[in-house]
Please model this.
Amino acid sequence: MYSSSGNRQGARVAASLNPSRPLERWRGLMPEPDLLKTGIKGLDEVLFGGVPRGNIILVAGTAGTGKTTLGVEFVYRGAREFNEPGVIVLFEVAPDKLIRDAAFFGWDLRELERDGRLKLVFTTRQLFQQELRRADSPLVAEAAEIGARRIFVDGLVRLSEPDGGDPREAFHFLAEGLHRENLTAMLALESTFSDTAAARAPEEFVADTILRLSIEPVQRAVLRSLEVVKSRGHEYALGRHSFRIVNGLGLEVYRRVQAPRGVLREGGAAFDPASRVATGIPGLDEVVNGGYFVASTTLVVGISGAGKSVMALQFIAEGARRGERALMITLDEPPAQVLRNAHSIGIDLQSAIDKGLVHLWYEPPQEIEIDRHFAQMETLVEHFKPERAVIDSLSTYGSSLGAAERSFRDFFHAIVALMKEHQVTAVYNHENPEMLGMSSMMGEFKVSSLVDNIILMNWIELGDTFRHALTVAKMRAMPTSRTTHECEIVNGQGMQVRSRPVKALPMVPFAAYLGLISRAPERRTPQAVPEVP
Model:
């Protein structure tokens, strides 16, 4: 809807009252929070910039989920990268052992101690709790001596008063002591942390920010995840985000797969009706009305061996021939095999790679962590800036994600949105297990509605020979004949769609068939065909 210049004030008022825009409504009224960056790779993106300075951050999870590593890195990055000295309080792990373990990640805690940017304190829980009540305690004095701005307390358990009083009051005293010293605190809480227990625990009510870490088996692998349960005073990314603990680095957090949002995302869906992208396959451009729309998405579905990968290579090669950058993501075949396959149909893919026109990205499907994989894809698209892209194949993603239809749909939706946002014309291959005929294009993964074009590849059995067949089942915003065309793969040349040597047969009315909605309708006998008025 458009407003005239004379009605701009009314439009602003209406926008501020629009319930579908709550964030825009309040951002103009509330001051931006003073955010403290954690410095942990990917975590600040999940926290939309960091946490409000002075927050009490509770990190909860079972043993082995990464709480200590997260807390130590929080203090280390602050001292090393943001000139914010810190204190690490230990109850169970001796300082020498912590220093040794930190060295595996390349963190030299001794150097920070010598420089007066870090203080390691080994104490008991009871003494720590008592000292925070006193403004003149040795712990407070040591923190003030180095100008500490961050503190990590490792191995915290459910607190209680010495006389057995309310544990929430005990945690209040702890929080007040940390706040009084102007410290942004991260507290590691050992917990089974079931949803029910979390709702009753006093620490969860008092803490400003809660990070829940978990580790769970996924078939024979394990998956680490991080969830921001709450964070007072600012926004953050909801959901469970993947993370890894990497030697020589520390934590790497990957925001859960989400489709891009904003003006670029909305504008990416608009096609230029005058522009077409050539397929690179002789005869196919005529079938698809001159080529694909720029930034459109094409799904190529067919049995293994029907020619999907050959079509993908020709699409990539055509872009390189025109000086367009192309990205090829392969999950089933390693790069050397892809290069060999390209050479067999007369495509010098290595030369295009050397010129910087093609980027070939391979990741074994057994090692895919979907959030990390999408983050890498996002970075690659943003930096390489391709005009064409191919994913070979979607069915491999389905195997990696398991039987979760919603997870696959969300992931594919995010890929489609990413490519459209960056105006990339994309082709996605998908293997259909049915050898002859198709009762379903995508099986249990129902995502065909997300794409603009669908091409079906199949085998047709004629006599003792299987012949390749191609049918354009869908072309958004363009007329589609849905005629099946014969095609062939020629050694040294690739795929070609044959021209029809004869005119199409006269169209027979539906009344001439039985079982129209079955997979194999039958012709009636000629005398039984009713006349068509």
